[in-house]
Amino acid sequence: MEMGIGLTLWDCTGSHVYSRTLALTGLYASDEDETIDLFEALTWVTELDLRNVLIEMDAKLVVDAFNTPCLDSISVFGDIIEACKIKFRSHPYCSAGWVGREANFVAHRLARIARDSPSPFTWVELPFDMDSLPHTSCSC
C-alpha cells in the first residue's frame, strides 16, 4: 500500500516557499504514518540546513510523544519517535507543534498527490490553486 507524504515550507509571512511530496510503500498504523511524516520533515529541514523551523502537525499524539523527554514505549511508533529525537538533536533549530487538521490542508492535499507519484518531488509552486483554499495566519 502506498502512503503519501506532503510537506510544505512557509516563511514567517505565510508565503509558500517549497513543498515536497513522496510516497512510501508499506502498511502502517495511523500513528506510525504520522510519525514517519515527522521524520521526513526533520530530514528535509536538515537537508536544506534551515534554522528556526516550527514543524506543525495535526497529529497531537505524535507531537506530544516527540516533545516528551522520556517515552516508555517499546513499539514501532516509539522507535520512530526515538529516531526523530536523534535527528532533532543533530539539528536543534527545530520545534514541533500541534495545529488543527483544518490548518494542515495543504499537506493533506499534497499527500494525496504523492500517492500517484513514482518518486519524490519538490514543488516551487503548489500544484493547485491556493486562492481556493482557506489561509491560516502566521506570526514572525
Report on this structure.
Helix 1 (30-48) runs parallel beside helix 3 (76-89). The protein has helices at 30-48, 60-67, 76-89, 105-114; strands spanning 2-10, 16-25, 53-57, 94-98, 121-123. Helices cover 36% and strands 23% of the residues. It is globular, with a radius of gyration of 15 Å. It is of the alpha+beta class and 140 residues long. The strands form 2 sheets. A 3-stranded antiparallel beta sheet has the order 1-2-5. A two-stranded parallel sheet has the order 3-4.
Features:
140 residues; alpha+beta; 3-stranded antiparallel sheet; two-stranded parallel sheet; 5 strands; 36% helix
Q: Radius of gyration in whole Å, from Cα? A: 15 Å
Distance between the termini: 39 Å
Note the run of SSEs as H and E. Answer: EEHEHHEHE
Tally the beta strands. Answer: 5
For the largest sheet, list the strands in their spatial order.
Answer: 1-2-5
The chain-level structural class is: alpha+beta
Low-confidence stretches: 132-140
Helix content: 25-40%
For the largest beta-sheet, the strand count, sense and barrel status come to: 3 strands, antiparallel
Strand content: 15-25%
The best one-word shape is globular
**Average pLDDT:** 81
Number of helices, where a helix is a run of at least 4 consecutive DSSP H or I residues: 4
